[in-house]
Amino acid sequence: MSRICFLIPDGVGIRNYLYSDVIKNLSNQGHEIIIWHSLASEVIRLAADLNGYHPLEKNFKVFKEDLIVQILRESSTYARLKHNAKLTDNPTIMLNWHEKKGPFRRKALVSLSEFLGGRISGYEGIESTEKIYFSRIKRTEAYKQYWSDLKEINPEVLYCTHQRYPGAAFAMEAAKSLGIRTVTGIFSWDNLPKARLLLRSDYYTVWSPYMKSELMFYYPEIKENQIFVTGTPQFDFYAKEDSIQSRDDFAKAFGLDPNKKWVCFSGSDAKTSPNDTRYLEDVAEALKDEEDVQLLFRQVPVETAQRYESVLSRYPEIKHLPPIWNKGKHWNQFYPFPEDISHLVNLSYHCATVINIGSTMALDFSWFNSPGLYLNYDHEPNQEWTVRDVYKFQHFRSMDDLNAVVWANSKQEIKSKVKEILNHPDKVAKDRNEWLRIITGDPTRESASSRISSLLEELSQTSEKVF
Known about the structure:
Elements: E1 3-8, H1 13-18, H2 22-28, E2 32-37, H3 41-51, E3 56-59, H4 67-88, H5 104-117, H6 122-137, H7 141-153, E4 157-160, H8 166-177, E5 181-185, E6 203-206, H9 209-218, E7 227-229, H10 247-254, E8 261-266, H11 276-287, E9 293-298, H12 309-314, E10 319-320, E11 325-326, E12 335-336, H13 338-350, E13 353-356, H14 361-367, E14 372-375, H15 387-390, E15 406-408, H16 414-423, H17 432-440, H18 448-461
Parallel strand pairs: 1-2, 1-4, 2-3, 4-5, 5-6, 6-7, 8-9, 8-13, 9-10, 13-14, 14-15
Antiparallel strand pairs: 11-12
Helix pairs in contact: 2-18, 4-5, 4-6, 7-8, 13-14
Protein name: UDP-glycosyltransferase
C-alpha cells in the first residue's frame, strides 16, 4: 500500500477531485489518501458521504508571501505574457496582466513587476529569473513548514490540483527536495497562454493532445514524457446516466414549466463581462413574447446575482437558478455542494441552448449535443471593454475555422438565432462536437478519473523518474 497526497490549495479542486471518482478509485485499489488543504472541514465530510471513504487530512498552512518572491514571480509572469503575445501574434494575451487598482502596496507591486519584467530579455532571461524565484522559495518559512509537513505525511506521490495558486509552488519545491514524485493538473483550457503555471512538477496532467502541445509550446523546457493526457474529471459527471433526472422531476424541483423550451443564460464574472447585466436584459427583451420559451439564468458561481437584480425585477419571467454553492468571506469558504453537480448536468441536458459571452458552458452543453450561442456585440461605440477582445483570446483559436457555436452579432439577432437553434439544432454549430473533442480529448475513452487514478497508482509504484 502506498500513500498518495492531494494538495487542494483552494476551492477549484473540490468538484474535480473530492467529488469525482479519483480518490474513491485509489482507495479501492488499497492506497492511503491524504488531503492536504485549508478548506472548510464541511467539504471533506460532504466528499466522504458522497464517495463512502474518509481520507486522512493535513492542514495546509497559509503564509503571507515573501515580498521578494512575489516580485520575482510577477516579473517573470509579465515577461512571459510579453513573450507569449509575441510568440502567438496576439496582443490580447497582455489583458491577463493585473489592473493597477486597489491599495497602494498592490499598485506599487504591479508597477514594479511590470517595470522589471519588461526588462527581462528573451526566453533565457525568463528561465534565469524563474530559477532565482524557485531558489528564493527555499529560504522562506512557508517552504520550511511544507518540508516538515511532507516529511510527516511521507507520500510516494504529491498531486497538486491547481497550478495557479502561488503557495503551491513552495509545497512542490519542498516535495521535490524530499524525493517525492510531484504531479500537477492544468486546471482550465485557457490557463496556459496566461503565464500562470506558477509551479514546476515532475509530471503534468492535461485535458487533451491539444493542451499537451500548448504546454510544450509555451514551456519548451517541459519535456513530452512529463505530460500525460488524462482528460478532466469535471466532464466525468456528464457521462453518468444516473446524474440525469427526468424533465418533469427537474422541472418540479426548480419550479420550471416542462412544456416550454428552456434557454439558459449563464453569467460571466465581472472582469470577463462587465456589461453582463445588459446582455441578460437584451436576451430577456428578445424572448419576452415567445410563449413557448422559458429563460433560465445561472450566474457564475463565485459571484452573487446582486448586479443582475434590477434586470430580474423588470423581467420576472426570468427563472433565476443560482449555483448551489457555499458562499464565504474568504476564498477557501467558497465551494460547490454535491447537489450543484447534478444541477449543472441537468441544465446542460434539458436546456436547448446556453447563451453567454465566451463561457466554457458552451462545451458543457456540447457534451449533450446542444449548440451554444455566443453574444458578439458591444453596447456603445468605442467603449473601453469590448467583446472583440474576448473572442480574440488565445484559447478561442482552438476553434480555428470550425463552426463550433452560433453567433449573435447584434441584439436584434438574438430572437432569430434562438429560434434557429430551437427549430433546427442539427443545422447550426455543426462542428460543436469536434470542438469539444479538441478541447477535452476523446470523450469515448475511459473516464478522466480512471486515467488520473491509474497514473498516480503507477507513479506510486515507480522507484525512478522517467526523465
